[in-house]
Amino acid sequence: MGRVGRSLTRARVLARFALTAQRHRFHRQQSPDGVRLCDETRRADNPYFMKISVPTETAPREQRVALAPDSVARLIKQLKLEITVQRGAGLRAGFRDDAYESAGATMVGDAASAFDCPVVAKVQPPTADEIGRIPSGATLISLMRPGQSADAVSALAQRRVTSLALELVPRITRAQSMDVLSSQSTVSGYKAVLIGASALGKFLPMLTTAAGNISPAKVFVIGAGVAGLQAIATARRLGGVVSGFDVRPAAREQVLSLGATFVANDLVSETAEAAGGYARAQTQDEQARTLAAIGNHIKDQDLVVTTAAIPGKPAPKLITDEMVASMRAGSVIVDLAAETGGNCTLAKPGETVQANDVTIIAPLNVPSTVAFHASQMFGRNIFELLKHLVKDGALQLDQNDEITGAMMMTHDGKVLRS
Ligand code: NAD
After folding, report:
1. Over the stretch 235-274, which tens digit does the pLDDT of each residue have?
2. SS3 of 127, please?
3. Which of 171, 176, 179, 339 to mutate to test the pocket of ligand 1 (most atoms within 8 A of CB)?
4. Quick check: CB of 244 below 6 Å from ligand 1?
């Protein structure tokens, strides 16, 4: 072979080597509308060119996993992504490694490999250690606790990690399928009624038995958003006599449509609904009238589930010490607002307390206790988000997009919100 022939062969070998190396490397390319993770060469050569990893959750009491096998299969099939899952990541939610393998995932043994990926999908906000493992230029999709995570957010910006907070999916119809707050609230509302029913020394349904008739239990749900409506539906299915209360007119209609009665019609106000369908904080006068109405109704209830919340603020206190003292012996309060301080003045987040023969349960991270379905719903939300983010096989992180921009906490080395 002549000199020209030899250098042509060498060039071909080098080109092939470069292509192979590229296939196994996190390749990053800037584009005017964001960061593309993969280039066209890589795409043409390998159908699985964008990689997402799912590490094992490490937070105490967290049993969920960011992607269940059904979402892994869909991401691979429909979006042609490559998925890496840390061995054992799904076990506490009821998903064995072989289910992920059958879905097409690659399993890795340790956290270091699970985090070393262009896109990392998690449930809980990352710890400092985990942030240190995410490669510079990668994207993190996870709950981030906006407003309470300043240190984590600045560490992510320093590593030039783009972080998308799942709590910040905008409440628009188009983004409903990506909304983990809704899916996980559905889980909480359902489980809260079961928690309350187990703690109650009464049946929920009416029973006619040889040992006599049993009256149904009375269930009162305060706050009829996603969790509250699911609590009402669940309590109705269990046979309770259910009432509900909320300050938003849309919520009143939904309570009635579920077959529950509505407490205090006169307290519902057209102006109670703020941006995004959330409630605004009540004025002092409204709060006083609300407390009077709840105080009047609660005396006669067996199980009370509270879910009232105001975004970015502590939960409104809607059940006072005096109201608890007025309740029947043996009644139960399940305070789902415990994460933001609780709706009951006597609730202790994460604990169960007894006060005047009333049991007050204030559970934390309720969705994690229904880990299988909570993870499935969480994973489907992430799948829908990725369907929105992945265009032509590449991740498009457009800060000006209504959904992507609203979720971005860090991007391009900058803190956008904390
Ligand atoms: P949330 O968890 O912030 O609050 C729970 C409920 O507490 C709300 O219904 C609120 O009105 C109520 N509340 C607040 N203060 C109260 C008080 N003093 N007394 C009684 N109730 C009080 O809300 P959420 O469940 O996340 O959602 C609120 C609404 O947003 C829902 O009704 C839903 O229709 C809407 N939403 C829209 C989308 C979407 O379009 N993508 C997604 C999710 C929810």
Report:
1. 999 999 999 999 999 999 999 999 999 998 888 877 887 7
2. coil
3. 171
4. no
